[in-house]
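Annex B. Sample input.
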Amino acid sequence: MTSRNWVKLFFNTLLLGGVVTLIVSFFVKSDAYMMALQPFNAFELLGVMLTFLGFGFIFSVISQMGFFAYLTVHRFGLGIFKSYWIPIQIGLILFAVFDLVYFPYQKAAEEASIWPYILTATIITICSVAVAYVKAQQTNQKAFIPALFFMIVVTAIEWVPAINVSDVDYTLLMIFPLFACNAYQLLLLHKLNSPQQSANSAKHATSKK
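Annex B, continued. Sample output.
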């Protein structure tokens, strides 16, 4: 990937994380907005929006760190485990899906129901399968398991800080931008690395000279 494409990916993902978090905050943190609207205070409202936008930027950076860490781990996995890397990823995916239910439920209050956590893990898994399917269709079928591994396992790891807070609002506030940013990076990577894209970048650099 060229430095120009990397910068483009970084800022686009940063913007996506900020916008998604801001939109989600309207629903999960509506009380923060109501305090600024009753009575109406423009500066306080702007401050609340900038706060959630800033949270989104942070979530986006976490997503991007996880993405590039995954690319490194994937290369090491292919080099060390070779043909066993796919079964290992499948095992880790199953473990992560289980952990998406067990770990948050253990952090919840004693009277909490387990079903919301099962529903959350199911939705994340279904959406991850959809993203992995699109990735495989756009590249090749061998990309399905690695894409699914990234969308479930890496997203779950990135989500741990919000789970540790044991605050449902911030848990929801973080998962949506994380998932959106991860899906965006995953589906865009092969396009930025395509021969045609590289040729266009080289042509653009030559024309500047």
